[in-house]
Amino acid sequence: MTLWTAKEAAEACGGRVSAHWEATGVSIDTRTLAPGDLFVALKAARDGHEFVAQALEKGAAAALVSRIPEGVDEDRLLLVDDVQAGLERLGIAARARTRAQVVAVTGSVGKTSTKEMLRCVLGAQGTVHAAEKSYNNHWGVPLTLARMPRDVDFAVIEIGMNHPGEIAPLSRMARPHVAMVTIVAPAHLAAFESLAGIAREKGAIFEGLEPGGTAVVNGDLEVSPILVEMAEARSAQVITFGEAAGNHHRITEVTVGDATTVAQGRAWRTPILFKVAVPGRHFAVNGLGVLAVAHALGLDRALAITALGQWQAGAGRGLREVILLDPVETHLTLELIDDAYNANPASLGAALEVLAGAHPKDGLGRVAHGRRIAYLGDMKELGQGEHDLHRAVAALPAMGCIDTVHCVGPLMRDLWQALPDEKRGHWTEDSAAMAERVRHDLDAGDVVLVKGSLSMALARVVDAIRKMGQVPAGGNG
Fold it and tell me: Which of 42, 89, 103, 213 is deepest in the core (most CB within 10 A)?
């Protein structure tokens, strides 16, 4: 199905074309480009103009460029003054022509998993457009919008930030009918003076709300009043969710199991019972926020609750896998919790609670009892208090139930030194060195958490654990 014709794209971007073409998608990466895509030659680590010829050879319909690359036929180009600005205009035009109800999501923790919950819940009641990855920055948001078909029922736009002033323009681009804030926690403190400063940046998502729009806000936070005030300043209807008394949507009881989390509470002024197919109180709280979004959109409550129960965490974001260590003796397994995509104090605390509640299996391997083991990498962008925040992890209540903690990176050395001797595992400078050790450190019956900031590359540790065996069919918990 045609997404953009040459004429439509040129009008949207304020650019120039010299021939007719039709694009069925939009891409910024030749490695994932599909035939028929419009290739956008952004400048990042390298100038995308260097890859235009390759993109066209791979079947791109055309390329969005600010100059004509050597040896490339101008008939397959969309020329603009600035490629980034051209992509933004393309996204704005796509948003203007769609009939979709748009939901925007931000937060220090849980943006992407909440986006995927929304994809699942909204998808049970219509067609949904959302980015397949965590495309939430200055190019990710317009790219997600530019890829949006005009006839979808819902769109979910994830919006993130690293520095002040990033969220508001992205929200104005997305023009959401509903904007949700999952949590405000110590993350990116290097760029902000305080938690209140982070809250004000997150609350800027309400700047783009459509008239009569709804703000869905975590009401359990110290900074919740800041978020509510910013939403009300935009004349938004406010729905709060969480566990505290006074929230419009409230969880009153949470039961965390090995594979699911069941929550009870009140929403729509009536009692509710719902589950998410992954362990973690924080997943249940964000799930309640998703149900609040469904309520704001006027969707069917029963269908929303049923669909939420079918959502599962993705790779790097709490995905649980059973690793088969011996293809013959199939009882010899360990469980992996892959949460290696990102980390800050709030998300790390939540992940450690999940590990503390897991159930290792005794009597399977060379160690007499199954263990709860964590591989933790540095939490980045925490500012001047980063060393104290890493040391403080040792005092979290969940640590009392964890057997061994292995630490990766110079900041995690602070945690490693703060741990009691009986819990202190190995410390390594980088993930490659730690990945070499996992076969010696782990055994059948163990439950293993891997978590750290993306730049710490703890995916190497995850891969090393996976390579210890084979993942059984249907092995996700």
Answer: 103
